[in-house]
Amino acid sequence: METLKNKRVLVLGATGGIGSHLVSLLQKSGALVWIAGRSLPKLAELAGTCQIPSDQLLQVDLADAVSVHNFAQNVGLIETPFDIFINAAGIGLIKPLDQLTTADMQNSFQVNVMSTFEVVKAILPKMMEVKKGLIINIPGILGKVPMAGAAAYCASKYALVGMMQSIREELKRTEIRITQVYLGGVDSPFWDTINLRVQRDKMIQSEEAAKSIWFLCQQPISGVVSEMVIQPFNHQAI
């Protein structure tokens, strides 16, 4: 297992259900953690709990293309490369096709695909200078299998996976590793706004999902975990 002590880690979506637990695990392991999210008060609260310096808080609204562009530029200006980038952010939209709008589809792609494109493009040059690094995305199980009512969500997550797999092909001569995490059914605030009958008590707990990503961050550089699939025992899609 690789040590996380003094590793520089950027967590996007840090204040979410999975992200906040992950930040705590990383900080307790000695990592130097930069946290990014939409709500500055939530970022400040998390930073206080995890003793993260105020200059390592980064505010960004992934639904706003200008905000994402500015965030990516600021991240790109950080001189020392990040060792690990974890994208724990995203939007989940569950609607049948007859209720789905063009704006819904565009927003799904902006948050789940375009924001990742901008940030990865900003951090990769410095990773490529040292020819090492780890990028972890969490497309979720709907980035691998379809579901009724999830056309916008699946389309954006499939696009995210395809984009990162193509980027991985460009990085084969480096030790920059890319991992996709396909989580299915995590009990997190994601479900608070989803109008769908689900059994949250039988889902994976956010803390356990965070531990799996924390585990990935410590894998030896001699190999790469290309993908990890974790689903509730009672709801296996694959």
Say what the CATH topology is.
Rossmann fold
Taking pLDDT < 50 over at least 5 consecutive residues as the criterion, the unreliable ranges are none
The biggest sheet, with number of strands, parallel, antiparallel or mixed sense and barrel status, is: 7 strands, parallel
Tally of domains: 1
What does this structure look like?
This protein has 238 residues and is α/β, with parallel strands linked by helices. It has one domain: Rossmann fold. 40% of the residues lie in helices and 17% in strands. The protein contains six helices and nine strands. Strands 3-2-1-4-5-6-9 form a seven-stranded parallel sheet, sandwiched between helices. A two-stranded parallel sheet has the order 7-8. α1 (17-28) crosses α6 (206-216), α3 (65-76) runs parallel beside α4 and α4 (102-130) packs parallel to α5 (151-170). The two termini are 28 Å apart. The relative contact order is 0.16. The model has no long low-confidence stretch (mean pLDDT 91).
